[in-house]
């Protein structure tokens, strides 16, 4: 079986490399000539543990190829995956321009049966728009070539994407023909041999499943952030509350950790898109509207704590930020809480020094020279008035607190991920402010 994947971003590149690893011949296509030239020279455009080895191995074996011309490879393809971006429009809806551009090219180019699969996260109803677009192009050509459309949403966690793809919790596939189902069964057979389930359903349900999954996880995060903020006010400890409710099998322990807000390429965009989809169908998603509101407010929680600690006098203060990416094991800074904090700190007249093990190049691209970039966390601490922990990278877990304290002007730590022990830091001579445990200012 031969497949083509259009889009070599996070989803497309991981998908292509993993299918190639299973023996499938994969052509990855992208209009970004610089990116494709880099991939053909072994340069991986994103950071994802294990991806570079997988790409290099399968490219060397001839199973994974990169190019810019979809029409040149589509004649040999059995399945075409659309993994192009669906960025949020100004009104919050997903922009389907790139998806429909791929559909037009497919309609203009196919000469035999093909399954067009949307891998990108797309609103319910996108498959029908794709089908209509392909048919229009075939009509312009005056030909009748059979094709099917399917939905195969991705459920990859950044930082663990290879393992998620190779050992998935579930594979969701939306189809509306037996032939498309047969093709998708054949493609995913290597995965089902290991016991990983493929859940077939109608296309609209598959499209909704992706949004519903991300919306539920975002809801759990915002719910726990709300609970943490309330715990500070009533004198409860969110760590104990989390243990108490997480032990209930109906709830479970995952995604119950309070923090300084979620970010990334999925949760913010998908929550907005689902709210917009509901509005287009005259329905008000009040729970998700609250989820989004809570998250935007939570991104400012450390700033509010810092402002209270210094009685609103932040001008001239030097603030160290530990972590820039929206989560560990990625350089992705889309919608990252660090960006909100940096904006507010700079507006308040602070000097900001940052360090992230992976995301520094991306930060320099986005922020430029507005902040300082340190070689490690110890350099950020030099003459700092406070440290704000934003991203819970493993290398931040056990620093030399004595060296950190001696380097700082004011030994203040604001822990945006609750990874430190408040008693330990207080014994080490720090003022410690966490989330939801009654320690530090109540905001």
Structural description of this entry:
Helix 15 (360-367) links the parallel strand 10 (351-355) and strand 11. The strands form three sheets. The chain has a six-stranded parallel sheet, sandwiched between helices. Strands 11-10-9-12-13-14 form a six-stranded parallel sheet. It contains 18 helices and 14 strands. The model has no long low-confidence stretch (mean pLDDT 94). Helix 1 (10-21) packs across helix 3, helix 9 crosses helix 12 and helix 11 (267-280) packs antiparallel against helix 12 (286-298). The relative contact order is 0.09. The chain has helices at 10-21, 33-40, 51-60, 70-73, 97-109, 126-141, 161-166, 178-192, 203-234, 238-246, 267-280, 286-298, 301-309, 337-347, 360-367, 377-380, 401-407, 422-427; strands spanning 2-6, 25-29, 64-67, 79-82, 114-118, 147-151, 171-174, 198-201, 318-322, 351-355, 372-373, 386-389, 412-415, 431-433. With 443 residues, it is an alpha/beta fold. The chain has two domains: 2-201, 3-Layer(aba) Sandwich (Rossmann fold); 202-443, NAD(P)-binding Rossmann-like Domain (Rossmann fold), CATH 3.40.50.
Topology:
Layout: E1 2-6, H1 10-21, E2 25-29, H2 33-40, H3 51-60, E3 64-67, H4 70-73, E4 79-82, H5 97-109, E5 114-118, H6 126-141, E6 147-151, H7 161-166, E7 171-174, H8 178-192, E8 198-201, H9 203-234, H10 238-246, H11 267-280, H12 286-298, H13 301-309, E9 318-322, H14 337-347, E10 351-355, H15 360-367, E11 372-373, H16 377-380, E12 386-389, H17 401-407, E13 412-415, H18 422-427, E14 431-433
Parallel strand pairs: 1-2, 1-4, 2-3, 4-5, 5-6, 7-8, 9-10, 9-12, 10-11, 12-13, 13-14
Helix pairs in contact: 1-3, 5-6, 9-11, 9-12, 11-12
